[in-house]
Amino acid sequence: MISTKIIKSIIKLERNTMALSLLVVINVLFHFLLLSHQLVNSMQPSCHDEERNALIQFNKSFKLDCQSRPNPYLTIVVHPKTSSWGSNNGTNYCSWDGVECDVETGHVIGLYLDSSCLYGSFHSNNTIFHLVHLQELDLGYNNFTFSPIPTAMGFFPELKSLRLSSSFFQGQIPSQLSLLSKLSHLDLSYNTGVNDPFVVKNLLKLKNPNLGSLVQNLTALDTLFLHYVDMGYELGDSLANLTSLKNLGLGGCGLYGPIPSSLGELTQLSFLNLKENDFTGYIPSFVQNLTHLFFINLDNNQISGPIPSWFGNLTAREYIYFYSNKLIGSIPPSLFKLNNLESLDLSHNSLSGTLQLDSFLKLRNLIALDLSYNMISLHIEERERDPNTTHSNFNYLSLASCNLSKFPEFIGNQTNLELFDLSSNNIYGQIPQNLMNSSLQRLEEIDISNNLITGFHNHQTILPWSSLRVLKIQSNLLQGQLPVLPSSVIHFDASNNILSGEIPKSICNLSSIFFLDLSNNNLSGEFPRCSGGMISGSIIALNLRNNSFHGTIPLECQQQESDLRMVDFSHNNFQGKLQRPFATCVNLEFLDFSYNQISDVFPTWLGSFPLLKVVLMRENKFHGVIGKPEYTKGAFPMLQIIDVSHNYFTGALPSQYMLLWDAMKAFKVSDLKYMNAWENVTFNTHEIVGETTLYNYSTTFVMKSVATSYGKIPANLAVIDLSSNNFSGQIPESIGSLKALYSLNLSNNALTGHIPPSLGTLTELESLDLSQNKLSGKIPQQLAELKFLQKFDVSYNNLTGPIPHESQFNTFENTSFEGNQGLCGDPLWKKCENWLLPPSSALNKDVDSNFAIELDWKFAVTGLVSGFVIGLSLGEMVIPRTRLAWLIYFSRTRLAELMIRN
To answer: How wide is the angle at C-alpha 241 spanned by C-alphas 239 and 244, nearest 5°?
Structure first.
């Protein structure tokens, strides 16, 4: 690099001798560069063979795999730095990519191998630990396949910086790290599970040693990032010794209790991130003493109370995030004194009061503002704005649920705006002209859902925002035709409006669309057939529910292993047969054909989709016998919900399929998880590097005789509805193996035989409907074991005998049993004169539960009265002693009842 002194000497040359000056400059530069080259060559340190070999062996101990990123929903640029070591760039390891050497000794002092596609297990015998002069080590964003952090990491005596974030390390953090007394930067963050981006699984633990034990000797630390390390810990005074600490990140660590006042010793803090813990209490008062603090994040905690007025005195504040807490009261006026404030998120609290939106516009550096989902009323002043007035130029603006009644006019002038959210307000009328401004070319996401918006300005249908990726306009009063979208759109939701007409052919231009929801409108015609199949090979969810589309079902996949996971064609006028789609729809999870005019046999080929969870075919013209599965080894292995009710199926119930429905055989606790599709979406706003977009599966089931709408389907829900067909034969015993069932409806068929006692093993069952069949025999006593049963209906069959009178059966109305001439007992008026049924608790579990005894109770009572009944026998069969006990008990009970009656 040219020195500053040389540049200054060149500037002083006489202007009237420009040509000569140029020659002088060229000469000076030439000699300077030559001298620099000689100096560099003379100072080039010699390499050390043992360190070269250590680097080569380290490289050989891992594969290079750039596809297995540790966090696939984070956007990172990968570069396999070690791929050229020792080959393309010679034997001088000081010139290798990611290697830094001491300029005097030649020892390796820095390894910067983040995002280098390293893949494999990491052990303490790795040759990297031979580099004893190492001062900085960065191995973040690789994949070390759930290895523990090697204990040998603690034996780098000169180490000052250690970065192991997002690299699939797991297990207890070794206590040996506390030996790194010179360490100033430690980052072990985001070593998390990745199967579900909405439920983070912490892979690393810090419990023995705990946080206090780990850092008590690391007094040189100025940066400590341990996001998503499982601590389960009350912080206390663990960090009191770290008086040099400037940057602290402990998000998602399971920390609880009040934020300790001992943090008040950390007077040098400039960055504080305690998000996603369980901290309680007020915003701690020591924060006002942190004069260098420019970033504070307390998102997703239990912080309560008001925002303190002293916040306005913290002039260094640039980023404040209090999202999703329990803050109350009004926003203090002192907050509007923070002239350096760039990003403010107070959303999802209980803040209240009326605010002037202009108050925020006066914060000239504010580029990100989120006030959504409080009890705030934002007031927009009706006055002309001076065009020369300087005010905030937002790139992120979220004012959802802020009691707005109109569009803020200033939005049309926000040329840097990338995301705005005005959803769940009371905005009425058309989208204004200034918002349809083509100068808003940076707009990536718009959410104006859940308002009273009637249309676009002058019914404009061609949208001008060329960078738009997400458009959410659902749940409004939008009329007219669908707008023509930019080809950049990946998520479009126009559901729950009054849109009409046919879908424009331009929808085929959405080459990267992930989610398309047009449900609950008045759209008609045939769905456009795009070249190669349905819209785009990238589509994940397509929802056309409740329109007036006709023609054949447009279910096709364009490419191998299509990403398509969810399709909903229900409540339309689709006709004909189901077209067997290409076998590349292997990721399908949810199919809904309900309420159409489809006339076909059961689509056995659906069994080839290995991830299919939900199949809904209610109210069509499906017919015939459901034959044997085409794929006997794995048909519908993930199926949890099937509804083929109100069709014309005949023959026996599909018992062979039931044997293959493995996902219904074991109940899984889901922690309130829901069925959904998700995809990584990248935005450049509001500190977002990578964001995951979620689309919840939804439908309506008829359960407990009531149509129940599920905006979100619980991940553990298991439902079978085969009702209102013409199935015949017996209910198979194998249905008792489906122990995760929540609802079973076999009503309105022609089923015969007995109710199988195996239904009593369905312990999660809440709804059982066997009504309007030709079933006979008794109601099995085993059904009384169903503790969660809320709806039970066996009406209009040929059942006989007493109704069980335990547990949930005491809660059912007589309508559950009517239409069975042979049934008796509560809640029916007909009493059981000649029947005996023991309570299930009295049954001997060691004796065959199906062993039935029928007695003439007049004989038994007579025997008891005369005092001679000691034992009873039927033929050569002796009643066991345990059964004799309850027999005598019930005999006496029956005798008392008869005596009272007579």
So the answer is: 95
